[in-house]
Design brief:
Structural class: mainly alpha
Radius of gyration: 23 Å
CATH architecture of the largest domain: Orthogonal Bundle
Order of helices and strands: HEHHHHEHEEHHH
Strand order of the largest sheet: 1-2
Helix content: 25-40%
Strand content: under 5%
CATH class of the largest domain: Mainly Alpha
CATH topology of the largest domain: Cytochrome Bc1 Complex, Chain D, domain 2
Largest sheet: 2 strands, antiparallel
Number of strands: 4
Length: 275
């Protein structure tokens, strides 16, 4: 009886310690709303503000920096995209319909396979097919005005003349006071793993779902070797434990800001189920 009581007390102590660690030792993910969408006031927008809008979209909603960054090497850098556009229009490999720099930059975002920079095509496509999605669809859903704002930013970034026009018939005037504008509203939360994978262009680097990216680790059976804690950490802090054969810094450390807690957990559950 004495041994039984000792075992019982020890078991209760272990359970208590485990429960305490689970509740207080492991960082908790608090529910969060998706990132906010900006309300575009094009009728009162100056070109300077239009360029700033493009910069925010480039680094935020457009998810451009997921691939176009100096560390990952998964897509060409865009600092000179506006200045090299003219020569790419004359390249024999160009298959698009653009006739100007603005048209080329626009086309490159909605029909990225019209011209693929050498070395950045899908594996096995001989640089004829781009892994980049159409950013006007596929869960990113940039509007015509947002696409043109990014073009303005890219032209300004390259030090070129900004020739894209703000898409409104109203003449640009000074912006209204900030307090006069309604607060931005959260974007619609994504409700399926497929939508999340499309929104954050996971397939541009990883083989996952129906995507065949080859820059990052193959995720088609990741759940067979990695648990949810590892997968969650890899999304929130990808440099904490880089996969064997892949350098730290290749995957951007931005998902904790761009993805809601609900979306994160949905993606973790999906990946954990890939056995």
């Amino acid at each position: 009886m004495k041994n039984f009581l000792k075992v019982l007390c020890f078991s209760l102590l272990v359970i208590t310690l485990f429960a305490g660690y689970a509740n207080y030792g492991i960082p908790q993910i608090e529910p969060a709303l998706p990132p906010v969408e900006e309300k575009l006031e094009l009728g009162t927008m100056t070109m300077e503000k239009f360029i700033k809008l493009g910069e925010r979209l480039y680094n935020g909603k457009g998810t451009c920096t997921l691939c176009h960054n100096p560390t990952g090497g998964r897509a060409p850098l865009l600092a000179s995209a506006a200045t090299v556009a003219a020569e790419r229009l004359q390249d024999t490999r160009y298959q698009g319909k653009a006739s100007s720099v603005v048209d080329y930059l626009y086309e490159s975002m909605v029909e990225p396979s019209a011209y693929v920079v050498s070395g950045f095509g899908k594996a096995g496509s001989n640089d004829t097919e781009s892994p980049m999605p159409n950013v006007a669809a596929n869960g990113i859903d940039l509007s015509d005005a947002e696409l043109k704002a990014i073009i303005a930013y890219l032209q300004d970034l390259a030090g070129a003349d900004v020739t894209v026009s703000i898409p409104t018939d109203a003449a640009p005037t000074e912006a209204k006071e900030e307090t006069a504008n309604p607060p931005p509203t959260p974007r619609t939360a994504l409700d399926t793993p497929a939508a999340i994978i499309a929104k954050f262009t996971c397939g541009a680097c990883h083989k996952v779902a129906d995507q065949v990216g080859a820059v990052g680790p193959d995720l088609t059976t990741i759940g067979a070797t990695r648990d949810k804690a590892y997968l969650r950490r890899s999304l929130l802090d990808p440099n904490a434990d880089a996969a064997a054969g892949f350098m730290a810094g290749m995957m951007p450390n931005i998902y904790s800001e761009q993805m809601s807690a609900k979306e994160l957990e949905m993606l973790v559950d999906y990946l954990a189920g890939l056995k």
